User: Fold these one by one.
Assistant:
Number 1:
Amino acid sequence: MTAIVHAVSSRRALIWSGDAAFFGAARDHLRRLEFDVTVCSDTPVMHARAELMIVDIDAIAPHWWKSIAAVRTYDKSIRVLLVGSRWPTYARFRAWQPYAYLQKPFSAEHLMRVLEYLKADE
């Protein structure tokens, strides 16, 4: 009997977005960077020991905003990348403590450069 073993990355990323095109591109690139990726498009969940959390603030429900702050309170080591078409308020920035913010519109190449930078800055 032969067993097939799949390598599981110890690096985890969480994407909170309701935009299928965005989370698909981000998920695919993160997988190429050898991240295990969890996408939340309905109810936010926290993946155990995620290193990176990408939050599309335009494509999530407003009641998730408190969840972002709760995750940051729970684990300050998680790098949070916010993407959105408008700047969040100072109060939200303060609560979310993002590692980076990427303002829409942006190209797929720009997103990939930011993800590469976040990976390299470990």
Number 2:
Amino acid sequence: MKEASENDRTDIAEKLSDLWIKSSEGNANPDWFQSYLAKYCNGNWEVITNDAMLEFGMIAFRNKLNKKQIDFIKISNRTLNYLHYYEDNNKVKNNKRSNLTYAFESDVVEDSKSDSLMLKATNGNIELEEALVVINQMKDLFGEGFEEAAIGNIEIMSTATGRGLSAKNDELVYCWKKLVEHSALQNDVKDNISDGTIKFASESQKAINDIQDAFTSPEENNHGFSIHNLKSYFKSALSDLDTACKDNDVDKKIKALTNIAKKLTEKDESLKEFVSDNKNRINKRSLYNEILLGIAELRGIKFRQQQEDHSKYLQYKGFSMISKGLSGTYIDNPGNLDSQTLNVLTNLVTEAYQNIRTEMTSKTNKVRKLVEELKKDKGFSPLLERTVGNSTNLYKNMIEYKNGDIYLKDPDDPKSGLSTAEKNFLRYFL
């Protein structure tokens, strides 16, 4: 492992220059790539590389100040959202198998798991997992002084389209473990990712790292505002965050991060607006959104890369009514929408829906089981159910009428006249 040499820097500069130019061609937000790299130019980061990374078009950025985060960029020349399908020996595509594990198992296996974090087999996601192959051998990055460092962001950036793609760290590690489970590493290569030797930062930890990075920058202007002028304004909030981190108290972290986010909006109310980022605000908005993602994660919301339901994502510009119709823009990764605020909302709404669906599925299964017990208790056969049976008869004995009102019977009252099945149903209902 080495710091980038002069020759390495020239090679890296050429690749980044190509990407920089391509990212500005016909892009609704031509400054996105410049703004993405800006965070690494504040004096806190160092560029790290080696032969393996350069061969795969990868660059590492290591925070040399807080020594807690290492980010990666992988340069690609492919269309990142192109989706691959499984092909059998006759080169026949199976459109029902498009997960990263499609060569080993049907998508049904993963899709049936409520806690699955499996990604689709797009070019971008395939390259993200390829990046992990290289990162798995990068133990030296966590050498003396960097023992507490963790992988922060891994971004694939395409010179073909001028766009980037990433996934959440828990998704990347989940897919890595599944792929290694199906196809073990060769030549006695140690799995440093699965065993935790190489660590990955959570969204909340990345948010905390970004805050510390912004407020310890040697540069006078960082993240879109003058840190030196605002440091005293954030002093109390930063102190609360340090205390929360030392105590490792989730509630305190949520409160401290919420306070910092509030103070950011007090200084720039445009952060609350649903507007496209511009050159002067994008870094501050990026920091603000990272804080929101960190708060959401601490509150129990998990995030997923969105690859389906394209028609639900309609952006105000950049869609073709003729080729796409009025249904939407067929966006494959909402993390790449022009509006970072829309990105955050998309992630939160998607995950909230998934959480509600998971919770309701669990409750539905329980209720279904209790109802089946009621049916057996009442002799309510499948034939009766499908013909003249009245399902309300299942519940009549659970209620009683008093003083012109309807009451549920007490399942713990021995004089209630309830059967065991009725008592179990009422206990769960109540």
Number 3:
Amino acid sequence: MKIMKKAATTWMVCGLVLLGVGCSGTKHPTPPIETYKADWANYSEITFRDAVLFMLNNDIQRGNDKEVILDEYIKSLFYEEYKARKETKFQEGEFRKNHLASLVNDYDKDKRFLFDINVNLGSYDPAAGGFRLTNINKCYKNKVARHTGDFTSGYAGLEKLILTFNNSDFVLPIAPENATKILSQEKKDKGVRIFCVYRLAECERRGKPGFISRTGDEDKSEFRCATVVEDVYLYEYKKEVFTNTRPIGKFVKIPEKKRNNRFDFADCTFK
């Protein structure tokens, strides 16, 4: 009898769950913890190979010799194997065709890239209602397969990749009263860290291929690419940023572009 009474009590208590009252001993799933992932988290920095992919797979390129670009790519990034095949004559043609096929097959016309940099905000634009973003030239140096310390040796036909970011149509929205407070401070520190998502618009090859000595800047070539900036995220100046770090702001595009002719040059880093 006691057993039946205890069972009835248990069923009655547990039945209250249907009315929104918890049952003693009943386990409820823990709600998932919300995790933030930055909108740019799936993008990465551009590589020399990305630029070569773009140039070999687009028909409208200013004065580019695609055969020369392919040769420079192979010699620059696969110099030892290229030199060996040149000497032994072993499958030279197949070696080149295989690289070309890979470059064609791997091309993604919709690919976006990411880069981040510490910059200063531009001037305040009352008409646009925010601070302008300075234009940027970003430079990468090709760290070829054969290198000693900080100097490259051997064939380095693709010596630099220079990206141009025209940010004329981006502003950081800030009300005039808040902008006045910022500009009236004695220390006018307008430094910010930005993360840009962009795609390539057009590239051209400049210069001519050649050998780079360990101490000199002899004959060399470089790629210069114009970009289309799609999104710009704002973080604190010189602060460490991770993919789960929330931005403190976002630049927005304005319909009317006010030409910004000033460009800041970033340091050229090894890639």
